[in-house]
Design a protein that fits this description.
The chain has helices spanning about 1-20, 35-55, 60-80, 90-115. The longest helix has 29 residues, at about 90-115. Helices cover about 80% and strands about 0% of the residues. It has one domain (about 1-20, about 35-115). α2 (about 35-55) crosses α4 (about 90-115) and α3 runs antiparallel to α4 (about 90-115). It starts with a helix and ends with a helix. It has four helices and no strands. It is elongated. InterPro entries: VanZ-like.
Length: about 120
């Protein structure tokens, strides 16, 4: 039953990331590198939810899926006219976040299995 929760959450988060990433840019400037932290956290959570929602998928593919989604979003930002630009550093933050999120999901799964046995 929980697997559907993680799957639905992953899909909804992907939609939210896409919508927020493609909305028109604002003039707000946050702290230095704050946007990279946001990318790291968003794609970390996305990979975490994908890994828990589809546990039979190998981690490398979970990471690739999340990272490729992020690259697609960056490309879309580069070709739209909403004041957004594509960024290699954002894509790297996405990849690193996805790697941490996917790995963390496996650690949590193993700990959960140990507790239940």
């Amino acid at each position: 039953m929980m697997i559907w929760f993680f799957r639905l959450s992953a899909v909804l988060l992907a939609i939210a990331i896409l919508v927020f990433s493609l909305e028109p840019a604002t003039d707000f400037q946050g702290p230095l590198y704050a946007d990279k932290v946001q990318h790291f956290l968003a794609y970390g959570l996305l990979a975490f939810l994908i890994a828990l929602g589809w546990p039979k998928i190998r981690l490398v593919f979970v990471i690739l899926l999340a990272a490729l989604f992020g690259i697609g979003v960056e490309i879309a930002q580069g070709i739209t006219h909403f004041g957004r630009t594509a960024s290699l550093f954002d894509a790297v933050a996405n990849l690193i976040g996805a790697s941490f999120g996917a790995y963390f999901s496996r650690v949590l799964s193993k700990l959960s299995r140990r507790r239940s046995s």
